[in-house]
Design a protein that fits this description.
By secondary structure, the chain is of the alpha/beta class. It has a single domain, classed as 3-Layer(aba) Sandwich (Rossmann fold). It is built from eight helices and nine strands. Helix 4 crosses helix 6 and helix 6 crosses helix 7. It is globular and about 45 Å long.
Amino acid sequence: MIAYIWKAPALPEDLPEVQTGVANPFPDLPDPPNLTRIDQLTVSMDGFESRMFLFLPAHARRRLVIFQQGHADDLASTNGDGAVRFFLERRYPVLVVHMPLYGLNTGPFPHGGYHDPMFTLESPTLSPFKYFLEPIVRAVNYVREVLRYRTVHMIGVSGGGWTTTLSAALDPRIRVSFPVAGTLLLYLRRQDVYCSRGDWGDLEQHHQVLYSMVDYLDLYILGSYGYRRGQLQVLNQYDSCCFWGVRFLTYRDIVKDVGAGLRRGRYDVFLDSSHFSHLISQHALDNGILPFLKRRRL
């Protein structure tokens, strides 16, 4: 996967550009009362620019949570603002990241549209997947090498859940991951009258070349395998967009059994039946995500 995405034998070692003490760019995320400052991390790649924002609370733990937004500029549409505050209140530094062409990110394609046109750039020397994943890798490089954080966790919703799944599979430095309403195995996906693309999403979700190398079963195992690692996939039973229902029951125990056989890491699924929307609910944060972190003693 690394060789295909980066045309290199290892993950990138570069760091982002860092600007400390910037203004809060998110009007739907007022400064929490315990916030000390916000730093901007910028990654430039072949005309694409990713701007990430590191929220640093007072008396911060040395354990980062990356929050990855999906196909939306604002955070409130997915309760991302609530998720960020949830971790800041528990003294976790939080890095807020948007997908390519969303938020304050820029590139050579229209802002806020489908990602499919990005894959016209694919060539023997370039894979557009790097524009989704390299900002995360470089941010992890920075917080571990410069800030000396011991642990990195990641949570993402919708397209951010997909990014979380891929990032955790590729980079074992991401200790515990929470992909929310982000993926299903390809054989389970369907078109839906309620959502124009149903479970299929943009091309990064079902790109033929990548998913002929690995499937989502592989990705879940890779993302949860390792010493003190784990992955809790959160799915909304009555999701208004995609990945709804209990289709995960066809594969959850298979992935759990593989992990148990490897004796390192833990995978599970949390079914959120508390709402009818495409978001991270407070119920999932309180009753799924936080208990999973505590069980992992992280």
